[in-house]
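Onboarding guide, step 5: your first structure request.
Type a short instruction followed by the sequence, for example:

Predict the 3D structure of this protein.
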Amino acid sequence: MARTPKNHGESWTKADDKQLKTLVRQNTPTRLIASKLGRTEGAVYQHASAIGASLRPTNQSPYNRRKK
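The system replies with structure tokens like these:
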């Protein structure tokens, strides 16, 4: 069974929100964001969606857009 993160079940603080937004702007992978915040990946995805932060990588071209 997997270990539970240190912040499991706790509410998100304003400091957590600020750090999440900073890490998203730096294009940090979601797994690393979850590790730094002590949350699960699912919790990070859900909270980022709730506060309007996009976790989509900014350095990747859109899929199916190859020139023929």
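Each response can be followed by summary notes, for example: The helical segments are 14-25, 30-37, 41-51.
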